[in-house]
Amino acid sequence: MCPLRKSITVSGKASGKTIKTILIPNDLPSNISLMHFLIDNGITVASSCGGVGSCKKCLINRSLLSCQITLEEFMATSILGHVEISYL
What's 32's domain CATH number? Predict the structure, then answer.
C-alpha cells in the first residue's frame, strides 16, 4: 500500500500551467515507479530507455529521474506532492 498523500499535482515548466491533479488510490503496489504511475494516468513522460535510467529523459523537478524513484519514495520525500516536467 502506498500513499502518504492523496494526490500529485503535475505542472509544465514550458507552459507554466497545472496539467493535472492525480488522485492516488490506496491499493497501488508500493514498488510502482513514478514514471509508470504518471504514464498510466495520461501524463506524457519522455523515455527512450524503457525506464532503466540511461537516457535521462524522464527528468522531473530538475533533478529526479522518474523511472528511478517509486511513487512511495517520491511521496515520502516530496513536501508538496508536486511534479514539474520541463517540456510540458
Answer: 3.10.20
Which structural domain range is residue 31 located in? 7-85
Count: domains in the chain? 1
Q: Spell out the per-residue pLDDT of the chain, length 88, in tens.
A: 443 458 999 999 999 999 999 999 888 888 999 999 999 999 999 999 988 999 999 999 999 999 999 999 999 888 788 999 999 9
Which residues are CB-neighbours of 38 under 8 A, at least 6 positions away? 10, 22, 45, 66, 83
1 belongs to a structural domain: no
